[in-house]
Design brief:
single chain, six-stranded antiparallel β-sheet, 12 strands, elongated
């Protein structure tokens, strides 16, 4: 008597999975389209008066049951810092302003394009650095696996050739990048809209790479600007200290903020003596901190209160003398481990003090 239960369950699952094919939406079926005929009065009544000025013909609708894929023109993405477009521009073009850290904007753009082509395994048929022109060999800007072809007919990748043109302004603070489709072969018909979409897609790949490369450059700049040159040395009294070439004002103004990022709680700052008093608590770490990059470096010192004396050195730099809560200078071995941990934290975080 129970043999029908598995079959009933199987049927119900099949029906639920194939619901879109069982319950067909006929809202846009051609049989549902109706035209609006004029009002027809009964034979015993006269037809309503109608002003010929406002008379309209009965609407006729050409219903096409075949689905049509309409897509808007692609949009140039100005996601990179310093990038912008002209609203009335009909070409696939973007402008870049020279950001801090970029020595040669023309060269930076050139290297970015070559990096994108390398990612696409695309060669070049022409490279003219003087004119700022790169013409590519055949490659596919849109791969089949990006679509939804696995339940339909097999579709071959279209192949394209592009020309990238860099035009730098005479003041060398702004440069434009233009992309042109110079050849195409594939199963699709190359319309003006498809041409525009392919050109903008190729351009956006370069914009994304430009953004990525400049973010890396910013990290490197922050690393160079931070107190990464902390070295073991001595203060003016001969005590073991951490020494940097940066000025006293630059270090003292920002060092307390750096300590707070390393699990210190600032107790007191005395600008007259250059003494910073802070409590240190070892941070709690978890696997999620390492995944999201939020892990805080643990310093090779015990929890408790410390005093950091910021002083000018005879050479014009700054010394950081670390003392415990009793004012005793930390031992050279502890200072050496502290120096390595602080320098690693600065490099890892790219912190600018």
């Amino acid at each position: 008597m129970q043999y029908w239960i598995p079959k009933a369950l199987a049927v119900s699952v099949l029906v639920s999975l194939s619901g879109c094919s069982v319950f067909i939406n006929k809202a846009h079926d051609e049989r549902n389209y109706r035209t609006h005929e004029p009002v027809k009065a009964p034979a015993s009544l006269s037809q309503p008066a109608q002003d010929p000025v406002y008379k309209m013909d009965v609407g006729q609708y050409d219903n096409n049951p075949e689905a049509t894929n309409y897509r808007p023109p692609a949009q140039v993405l100005t996601i990179a810092k310093g990038s912008w477009v002209e609203e009335t521009d009909k070409q696939a073009r973007i402008y870049f302003d020279k950001n801090d850290g970029i020595a040669d904007l023309d060269e930076f753009l050139w290297d970015t394009i070559k990096s994108v082509l390398a990612d696409n395994n695309a060669g070049t048929s022409k490279e003219d650095k003087l004119l700022g022109i790169i013409e590519t060999d055949w490659y596919s800007i849109i791969k089949t696996e990006e679509g939804f072809w696995w339940w339909g007919d097999e579709v071959n990748d279209d192949l394209e050739k592009f020309r990238f043109t860099i035009e730098e302004k005479s003041h060398q603070r702004t440069a434009s990048l233009r992309v042109e489709l110079i050849d195409f072969k594939g199963d699709k018909t190359l319309t003006d809209l498809l041409k525009q979409q392919l050109e903008v897609r190729a351009l956006n790949q370069v914009v994304s790479e430009f953004d990525y490369r400049y973010r890396q450059l910013e990290v490197d700049m922050r690393k160079r600007q931070g107190i990464i040159s902390l070295e073991m040395g001595f203060d003016n009294k001969g005590n073991a200290a951490l020494v940097t070439e940066q000025s006293y004002d630059a270090v003292f103004d920002r060092f307390s903020g750096f300590l707070e990022r390393l699990s210190f709680s600032i107790v007191e700052i005395n600008p007259d003596t250059g003494l910073i008093t802070a409590d240190y608590t070892k941070p709690e770490t978890s696997v999620w901190d390492s995944i999201w990059g939020d892990d805080v470096a643990q310093l090779p010192i015990d929890e408790g209160q410390y005093q950091i004396l910021v002083s000018k050195t005879k050479e014009g730099g700054t010394s950081l003398t670390w003392m415990d809560d009793k004012g005793e200078t930390l031992e050279p071995g502890t200072m050496n481990g502290l120096q390595q941990a602080l320098e690693a934290a600065l490099i890892q975080r790219g912190i600018k003090i």
